[in-house]
Amino acid sequence: MNAHPTNAIEKRAPGIPAEANLSTLAYDVEECLRQKDLINKLLAEQWIEAKEENGFKGHYGIFPGTTGKALYKPGAESIAMLFRIGVRYSNDFIDLPNDHLMVRTTAEFFHIPTGSTLGSFSAVCSSREGKYRWRNIWSTLDEPIPEDYRSNKGGYKSRGFRAWMEDGSWIWQKKQKGENPDIADQYNTILAMAEKRAYVGGIRQITAASDIFFAAYADPDDARRDLNNREDEDQGSGSPNNPPKSSQGGSGSNQKRSRRESSSSQEEPIWSEIYPTPNCPKCNGPMWDNRKGAKHNPDGRADFVCKDRNCRYEWDENSGEWVSSQYQTDIFRAQYPDDRSGSQDPELGF
Question: Among 45, 97, 277, 291, which is most buried by a count of CB atoms within 10 Å?
Fold first, then answer.
């Protein structure tokens, strides 16, 4: 999302001397500080943090491993009400191949009492974004159901397999990503999302609230997708693209790692030393170890993921895009059994 300021002075306004410079027209420092104080007071006294307990409904969010706050649309609307900021939208609709659509929205902000233009902000949303483009499709495989399926049901499920009853008989299926056949149903959602992104980003910009909110998102789902994409680009690299970490006592990730390693040393062995990380089965390169203590990932991700992005993604000549080569590079528990006594998983059967 790119900012496009529109409040440049095109001609000298009445009462402003010809020799006026930036310092002459500068905003009062006390008023600038007061504006910051008003936002912080609103945040402290009225706002609700979006958490799992409240269904991620709130004005702002704080993500694991960070201390920075992300501004959401309810929070942006609250700031706009505080400073009496209005908005006008202009939208460009761009047709893409295969009935896909991109919407580019520019939000122009103005001061309601005076009508003065405060600035503008542009954002886009496209039906080619993964949330709108892809749908899960179960395809039937010409294979029998594995004999260990019942005892290893969770392991197969995490890799996208299932046994399914159809026409009175059981079949073996695999979940795959497929194009959304009803992509036009997403057009209104795409328009609304583009406007939300432009609105929240613009409010954060024109109120100079970037030191309070490290980012601005339409909603928590939009934030999670963005942060997951950043993590996928460079897992654990500490790149500038990652959200800010705690400035006290080391980074948030380092604090969590220290607590985890301390806990492991007291209660259990460090499994990464007993069961070292294998090499990628595709390129034989190093892999990320996603195991957590004595348990495997509870969210169904692979235990090991190749560090080489070029290995994890392949160029698809048919779609003209980079697509995931998942399951060729990932290693799951069923492929890498390690008999961890005292941590038996009843769902996975071992």
Answer: 291
